Amino acid sequence: MNFDKTKTDAEWRTILSPEQYRILREHGTERAFTGAYWDNHETGEYHCAACGAALFSSAAKFDSGTGWPSFYQALNADAVAEKTDTSHGMVRVEALCRRCGSHLGHVFNDGPAPTGMRYCINSASLAFQKKQD
Ligand code: FE
Question: Does the pTM exceed 0.85?
């Protein structure tokens, strides 16, 4: 996959908080029920916390009970890239921002209708933009 390589590691470190850097750039995971958005029910869009690309709509968010913000689909086909992840002795599908390659979370096939997919995403990887009415 080709991602924008417009920023160096050192630049990401200055832009992102230490926690965001660990998750977005080092494939980390935040502790469940600690992030800003797992219990957010406001209407709006979730953007990549690194590059600002629009990734998910609140319309596809559901309460998974996992303690991480969960979506049954990405905003569109160009938003999220998926890649096999064999770390930690598991075979999982990693979700990445398609624009900048930052780590978002993982994708599972135990989600609700209509897709049956569950995008399990770190709050720290997201920046919520509330819909203006
Ligand atoms: Fe991004």
Answer: yes
